[in-house]
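DM from R.C. (forwarded with permission)

"hey, sorry to bug you on a friday — could you get me a structure for this? deadline for the figure draft is monday and I only need the backbone to look sensible"
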Amino acid sequence: MMDSIGSNIDNEENKVEEEIVGNDPITVPFDPNLIRIRRDPFTLGELIDKIEHDEVNFKTAFQRKSDLWDKTQQSRLIESVLLRLPLPAFYFDEIIEHEDDIEKRKTIWQVIDGLQRCSAFNHFIVERSFSLENLEFLTQFNGKYYKDLPRELQRRISQTPITVYVVEKGTPEEVKFNIFKRINTGGLILTPQEIRHAMNQGIPADFVAELADLKEFKDATCHIIKTERMEDRDFITRYVSFYLQNYTAYQPDLDGFMNKGMGKIKLLTDTERVEMKSRFIKSMQTAIKLFDDDAFRKRTNVYDRRKPINKALFEVQSVIYAKMSDSQLRLLVNKKNVFKHKFIQLNNDEKFRYAISSGTGQKDSVVRRFSEFKRIIDETIEEKISI
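My reply, with the result:
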């Protein structure tokens, strides 16, 4: 017993007590005339040039120590640049050394925000001290040093535009710390769909955007799917991915499956894309005819309140309806009361609920939700559909 108590005490002693920090309003506002921040048009190559010439100071009062990122994190930053994904803004404090001596005068940037990124660029490009590892998309460059990259990719790195904010000399120290505090209160991380969009520019991205903008899609989802952060396009990409890749061939993970699905769009002919769009429109119209404003939502009884839209149900229904023939769709709509009763029964099945709720990316869950939804359609129309 004493050992247990002592162990608990030791564990507590080795922890830092959680601090609750209130966000009190600033009672003594800064003099706005003393705040001078400029935005410089910059490229990553220009920033690297400053790092090479020791004009960037990594050891500042605003930052933790550099080199907190491991090689995987640093490698994936480089990968983001190669994929042309936008980088967060950099913030620097401008210090002018020997201002009165033109021969010794030197402008130094102290890092306010972006230390780990600057360190990664320094290690990979300036010092060339590590090779890329654990890349997610450009896996062919794993094990490559900067010197091993094709000249075109080296040029892409140097020409990458970046946003740089420079706090000019004379700005009070408390303003600089306030800037650091504000810009580090939760950054904006790209969603998986935003990454897919960036990686699949051209026909795939345009096609997904085209389907997301369809009136039929917006009507079927009651105009509640947000366009911010590309949530609407995430829904469409689920349809595309399982339309072009049979659910029986699904292998986790779901994000990877969707990445492949979106990439396959560019392999289609114009005619195939037109047909795919036409079938999607028909699928959305069918969902409305069957469920009205209850489409793609769970329902365990007829009196249950309306639930939120479920992505897994959208994925299954949009694809299966799209794969059905016109005659099969008409028959299903004509027998919609029977079908909706079977759907309620299915929603009461514990394994099916798990497949659309808790384990949506597991292979068993994907197979179960597709096969079970297909089953109740087959039973309704008394005809086996082929998907």
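R.C.: lifesaver. The two ends are 62 Å apart (CA to CA).
me: no worries. Residues 1-27, 185-189 have pLDDT under 50 and may be disordered.
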